[in-house]
Batch of 3 targets.
Target 1
Amino acid sequence: MARVEIARDAIEAGLLDLLQRERDKSLSAREWKFRLAGYGYAIKEVAGAQVLTKLPQGVELGVLPAHLH
């Protein structure tokens, strides 16, 4: 099995606030991901962790905190 490196950088506080506000407004995880795409972000699964990425390049910004899953 290949080892996968995940960006472990901390996500900026302002961006975490945006993620939390949008999660609170959403009725489902699917809707939340759709709303984030409108801001130019996506969430992908990497080695069992949810990673925030910047669209369209897919640049990894960091691992989401557990309370946002």
Target 2
Amino acid sequence: MRDWNWRRMRERHRLAAAAPRPDAQFESRFARVDGVRLHWRATREDPPGTPVLLVHGMAVSHRYLMPLAARLAERFPVRALDMPGFGLSGAPDAPADVSALAKWIAVWLNTVEEGPVAVLGNSFGAQVATALAEEHPALVRSLVLVGPTMDPAYPTKLRQTWHWLRGLPSEDPGQLPVILRDLADAGLRRAWRTFDIALDDQIDLRLPNVRAPVLITRGAKEAVASQRWIRELDRLLPQADTAVVPGAPHDATYTTPDELAALVLPFFDRTAAG
């Protein structure tokens, strides 16, 4: 049983639930890209350095990324984007596939003149971040994949869901209302269709084409991305590091942000400058 610290849990929830209101570190920003109004949280006062873009997972939003964002914002400008159809961003008529989501992010980065960036994607967000690095390489200086999906050893929705459920006891229970709010924003139909899109995408075919330095992490209590899967992805990359986040579940960005940041910050220090 995890020894939960209620003060830290309240702080994580405060960070996750703040948008669109500004807080001490972050503010909400909006821009229209290809007819869709996109929302992101950005550091109000940017430290010097390359911006770090955080890419969320399936059926969620920027919200669960904010505990990690707060830690990274001590050293880097941070942007936590809601992809089209999720969080506070507008929704296209149909759910976008991985390449389309990566293109939306690329157009957004050019629109707001933010690139090139360092990118961190969690879960399905790791798939989108990899597509961004593969298809729009000039925009990505370095790449962190946190608990990347989809492991082909679990080729169905049922098996993927089972492994996700196995990890729930290690997640911060305060994340539940955050996830439910995200799911309400996305809608069940978009979430279900995005699940199909995630299963159809093959990150292992994209990674050999990525030329940016890559760090792949999995949580020590991870149930979705196995150590075997991480080793397989590592073998595909010309420039890769791997690491295990101590005590972390799948959503390390929310439940164990300090432990994840301790691995990510030195990597960005080495690689994000260009």
Target 3
Amino acid sequence: MIADVKKSAEQKMQKSLEALKVDLSKVRSGRAHTGLLDHVTVDYYGTQTPINQVANINLIDARTIGVIPWEKKMANAIEKAIRESDLGLNPMPVGETVRVPMPALTEDRRRDLIKVVKHEAEAVRVAMRNIRRDANAHLKDLLKSKDISEDEERRGQDEIQKLTDRYILEIDKVLQVKEAELMAV
């Protein structure tokens, strides 16, 4: 039973960590990457469709994303969708390709982005602690119903704490990498 509680907590913590990585990938540094446009949707015959389902997205160079629509008439809709997204990008149509240059980041903007990134990481740390609290409460319930002994409950809490510590270290590592990426000129 303790193994089930631990496994459930670990799965939830892993999902939280993955969600943090996805959220941080949306915070842009000066470099271009194709994942930046993943959450942008385009009006495709009346349906909001992810941009990667109507076009090929690739890197032209380190600071420019190229979007090549599968249908030529979609170029204007793709340009409009990228321009209206919350990314602050200014796409330019060049023939059949939509070029998306990444603007250079100022020092102040980099610091603001680092604050955002730290806030995201802290929110996930809080989520990890909530998962730990729920797992410990579940262990206490098992103890009350006499399904496990006090020693097993204490051992289970220790294992949950070690798991929490490990995932919080992972969050810190991911945060350090993102901060370094944002501060790189």
